[in-house]
Amino acid sequence: MADRQAVRAAWPFVALGGFVLGSAGQLQQATLWPWPAYAALIAAGAAVATALAARRWPGAGRADLALALLAGAAIGAGLAGVRACAFAAQSLDPALEGRDLLVTGVVSQMPQHLGNGLRMRFDVEAGPPGVRLPPRINLTWYAAWPGSSGATRPAPPRLRAGERWRLPVRLKAPHGNANPHGFDLELWAWTQGVQASGYVRTARGVDAAPVRLARAGWRHPVEQAREAVREAIAARVPDAHQAGVLTALVAGDQAAIARADWDLFRATGVAHLMSISGVHVTLFAWLAGWAIGRLWRGSSTLMLRWPAQHAAAVGGVLLAGAYALFSGWGVPSQRTVCMLAAVALLRSGGVRWPWPLTWLAACAAVVALDPWALMQAGFWLSFVAVGVLFASDAGNAADDGSRWQRGPLRLVREQAVVTLALTPLTLLLFQQVSLVGLLANLLAIPWVTLGVLPPALLGALVPALWGLAAWMVQGLMAVLQMLAAWPLAQLSLPAPPLWAGMAGIVGGLLVAMRLPVSMRVLGLPLLLPALLWLPPRPPHGAFEVLAADVGQGSAVLVRTAGHGLLFDAGPRYGRSGTDAGERLLVPMLRALGERPDMLMLSHGDSDHTGGAGAVLAAHPQARLAGSLPAGHALRAGRPFEACAAGRRWTWDGVRFEVLHPFEPMAQAGSNARAMSANTRSCVLRIVAADGAAALLTGDIEAAQESALVARAHGAALRAELMVAPHHGSRTSSTAGFIDAVQPSLVVFQAGYRNRFGHPARQVRARYEAADVEAMDTPACGAVHWRSLQPDAWACERRLRRRYWHHVARLPALR
User: Fold this and answer.
1) Which CATH number fits domain 544-632+641-799: 3.40.50.10610, 3.60.15.10, 3.40.30.10, 3.30.413.10?
2) Would you kindly state where each structural domain of the chain is located, as residue ranges?
3) Distance CA 422, CA 507 (A)
4) Phi-psi sector, 351: left (phi>0), alpha (psi -120 to 50), beta
């Protein structure tokens, strides 16, 4: 009898767990099935669930629980799949990429201001006759049109959410960089409902000009209110750093926070407080519930109609939901509102579920709203944090069931527990953790939740309070800067494998839970694999090459048994103000556990040196070498080794040799400045102990290729792997040079739909005629190659392929 009761009690856990697992399984698909297959899954799961529910579990057994698990999984996978098929059907037709299109639509989110323009979310109403466009796109409106001569053009007009416009645009499919442990931009676009991105065409020669068709009306009132609050804060708070933090806390505009401030918050472990998190929504719900309860108790009529505690709970949840919606409806806000709603609903009905079931119900609700939240770091941080809070105080949770009513001081203690427990998960997701984070959070949590957030929120009613909130932000940032200046304030570790990360998470939970000390100590060994993990390296005499996907630029990581070399550092990303070093290379090197011994910059062009400053700042131990003129900013204040043909060295049995330039730039005299930087590119050949070789060529052109062939003796140029000269420009990769190198694989590092047309069709045709396998980073992502298996190269996009990833289609050779 007891077993049957236990099985009946387990039914909700099993069904909800199956739903979440089924949704997670569908997200692992590389390609989508036809939608009827997902519909069949839903029908089958619903039929099984209905049959099980009709039995009312009179003699439920383990077999029935297995069926419940399968039914939930089928429904979860089917719902996620049907939604994915419907969304994928709205994708941009590849034939429309790069064409001038006239679209009519509405600005659906408050625009984000850039240094040289603005970025906006645009809901398309109509396109050219007979053309189907995605319903939602991202547009950038530049003051100067990309690709123009650089002449100054008028700044974009002042746009507001809800306005209707007709705009000439050029679009392309969302396409991000695919690198190990890198940010998945295509997943982000998918979760935002965006199927294309592009820019507004304002250059001469465009047939149509932008036209505002209607001012902001009744549509998108929440976005209009957020924009009004953002502008009001900017007008009231003169300091941009303080205004940015307040705007993020009140209106959910995280882009308002300066990049340097985000670096400070991450270094001190308080970044979660600077966006709308569960703590903020919970505090808002507590304050709203307390106020509603006080007002409700003042009316005998209302008290007779409904108990004040129930009115406070429901009112607090509704107002917290409105705040979460106003702030952008992020995953932490969704999770918190679902949790609060579940608790309020259960208490209003006199039901008290065990905390694991409440936790799982909120998780399933968020997954039902957005299955792809399972792929976001914020989801796991949020739900593991909530699980830690429940598990570390399970007895009290069972007693009153509504944490959010206990007051902000209780939240401070709970956040301290969360900070400790989430350290392994933070390392798994971000490969870094703040060693001053616990102290910083103990100070910042009450400071933000009690000192900054209340006046910041009330400032929407009494704007003068924003001055007080800004003063509190100023004091907080002063304290955080002091903590960030401490030695070893932040710890960076390589990304552990999944098994080590999961063991570390379990260990963190054991340490944080309210258990006897003897049981808590058992969690410490589980932390060690994640903390002590060292990524495998090539054996002595071998090397690996990772040609990173950095867009229109070059960056190649070479790893031996005990050393690392980064050849070029990627581009600077134009008007965005970021570069490949900060955005891609530094996080990738950290995740791989790589501390490069040398940064070699082939030449001074910005698509090869744009990220060098960020790499050198993160890795000051790296020696700087390359072909840079004497006055180059990167050479200031640090030793520099000029590239010169004939320079050789050996690392771990692997030989490195510089083949070009024949005369270092520093010794080339006055003619060096007049020469193209491309012509003086470093060319580096790496040879393993078994003879397998790779050739890194920079941006050399036909004349330098001919000179290299003329000076080569025997197999001096031969290499199984070659990074194509000048990204595949038609001025390089001559037939004679290809014949001298005789590569098995050539890699084109270029940007997706780059304006230079790299790699050129005739260049690709030359490699095809020479029977050389060619791959470019837009289609492949980062390219992995090992000297021990020179024919077994791998593409990052193929290694982690998911159905939302864009497939770059190469133009036909003929």
Assistant:
1) 3.60.15.10
2) 2-88, 99-219, 223-492, 502-532, 544-632+641-799
3) 10
4) beta
Helix (H) and strand (E) counts in the chain: 32, 24
Per residue in 513-568, pLDDT (tens digit) is: 777 888 888 888 988 888 888 899 999 999 999 999 999 999 999 999 999 999 99
Share the mean pLDDT of the chain. 85
- Residue 181: name the closest of 451, 557, 461, 508 by CA: 557
Q: Coil, strand or helix: which one is 751?
A: coil
User: How many other CB atoms sit within 10 Å of the CB of residue 254?
Assistant: 18
* Integer Cα distance of 748 and 12 in angstroms: 53
Identify the pLDDT of residue 3: 53
Distance CA 698, CA 553 (A): 10
Q: Which of 51-60, 148-157, 473-482, 483-492 is the most confident on average?
A: 473-482
Q: Output the CA–CA distances (angstroms, integers) from residue 436 to 407, 432, 443, 570, 595, in the order listed.
A: 26, 12, 11, 32, 23
CATH number for the segment(s) 99-219? 2.40.50
CA distance 794 to 789: 11
**Greatest C-alpha distance within the chain:** 100
Polymer length of the chain: 814
Nearest Cα neighbor of 241 from 11, 530, 463, 470 is: 470
What is the model's pTM? 0.88
